[in-house]
From TrEMBL:
Residues 223-255 are annotated as: Disordered. It comes from the Eukaryota. It comes from Spongospora subterranea. This is Uncharacterized protein. Residues 97-152 form a coiled coil. The chain crosses the membrane at residues 178-195. Keywords: Coiled coil, Membrane, Transmembrane, Transmembrane helix.
Amino acid sequence: MNRRWTERSFIGVVMRFIVLVLIGMLATSLVADHCTAMAVHELLGWAAAAAKPASDVARSIIDYFKVRQQSVREVERARLAKKQAETLLEKSKFETAKAAELNQSALENKLERALHEKKAALSAADVNDARLQETRREQEMMQLDLQKKKSDIEAMYLSKIQEQTDRIRAETDSKVNLYRLLTLLVLGFASYLFYRLHHLQRRNHATLLAPDLVKTGPRYITRTGHVTTPQTGGDTGNAAMKSNGKAEPAIAAAS
């Protein structure tokens, strides 16, 4: 029992030692990797910080040389343009002096001719101005005449239109009155015809009810239905009149 326990304890101790060694190696490698990464990061940052001013300085130097070269070229161009302008100025001065010496008389003649032409143009302008004023006056007179004629024509047309309007209104009033009279006549004639037709219809109706009215003369029909004559005054009629006290004509009974 003691021997087995001793072997197990020894194996356990060895295994614990190996595990601790492995854990230590792993921790050492992790710490070393972290330190290495931090160092590399700092080194790269320092290199970038050191390289940026150098690149800025190099770029500024290049820009300076470019600007200087461009300014030198512009100065050379300005000098060349100045020389050309000076040569052209000298040439123009020489040509002007030569032309002035050679053509002074011609210039004087041209000036005199220009003065004469100017005087002639001024006189022509005065004449044209006078003609223009006269033309304006004529136009104003014509415009006044046209306005007067226009007003006369408008008044004439207005009077004619008023006359035609009055005539048309009178004709219209007469026609309206005639139409009214004709309408009244037609309505009266129609009323008369209606009345006559109604009267004839009543007579025809009464004749159908009493066909012997023409032969025997007027008869009376009482409310009980008995027929009497005013001349004879029969017993039947008297009895009916005595019983009712009233008698109606045949025509009225028919209606």
